[in-house]
């Protein structure tokens, strides 16, 4: 697990994410659900981001609490997401989670895949 000497969290969760995930969790009506963010192979740039709800943390998960929500990231994904900012955008182009990843050397046009 990455450790940040200046006390910064390994990933940054925006207020917009807290608000949107809070709304989605309220609809699910399950207080045990957490947002899971993960990286898998694939996509047009080599790796792609994924989001899901999960009610169980695994042994190697990092759990980040922000406001009323909790976010899970597994150890393999964390090596690619360390220092990333997770945001939520609602625009004319649509609504989506956005990851600003300092570890990515390139990204695709849709922003959902990247390479390192």
TrEMBL record:
Q: Which Gene3D superfamilies match?
A: HesB-like domain
* UniProt-listed InterPro entries: ATAP (IPR016092), ATAP_core_dom (IPR000361), ErpA_proteobact (IPR023063), FeS_cluster_insertion_CS (IPR017870), HesB-like_dom_sf (IPR035903)
Record: residues binding iron-sulfur cluster: 44, 108, 110
Q: Which residues form the Core domain?
A: 11-111
Question: PROSITE patterns attached here?
Answer: HESB (PS01152)
Iron-sulfur as a keyword of this entry, yes or no, is yes
The UniProt keywords, alphabetically, are:
Iron, Iron-sulfur, Metal-binding
According to the record, cofactor stoichiometry and binding are noted as: Binds 1 iron-sulfur cluster per subunit.
Instruction: Tell me the superkingdom of the source.
Output: Bacteria
List the cofactors.
iron-sulfur cluster
**Record Pfam families:** Fe-S_biosyn (PF01521)
What family is this? Belongs to the HesB/IscA family.
Q: How does it assemble?
A: Homodimer.
What does this chain do?
Required for insertion of 4Fe-4S clusters.
Protein name from the UniProt record: Putative iron-sulfur cluster insertion protein ErpA
């Amino acid at each position: 697990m990455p450790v940040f000497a200046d006390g910064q969290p390994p990933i940054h969760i925006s207020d917009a994410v807290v608000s949107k995930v809070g709304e989605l969790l309220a609809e699910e009506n399950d207080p045990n659900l957490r947002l899971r963010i993960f990286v898998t192979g694939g996509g047009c740039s080599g790796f792609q981001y994924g989001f899901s709800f999960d009610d169980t943390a695994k042994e190697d998960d990092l759990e980040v609490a922000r406001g009323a929500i909790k976010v899970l990231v597994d150890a393999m994904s964390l090596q690619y997401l360390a220092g990333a900012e997770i945001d939520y955008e609602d625009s004319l182009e649509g609504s989506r989670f956005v990851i600003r990843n300092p570890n990515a050397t390139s990204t695709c046009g849709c922003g959902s895949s990247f390479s390192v």
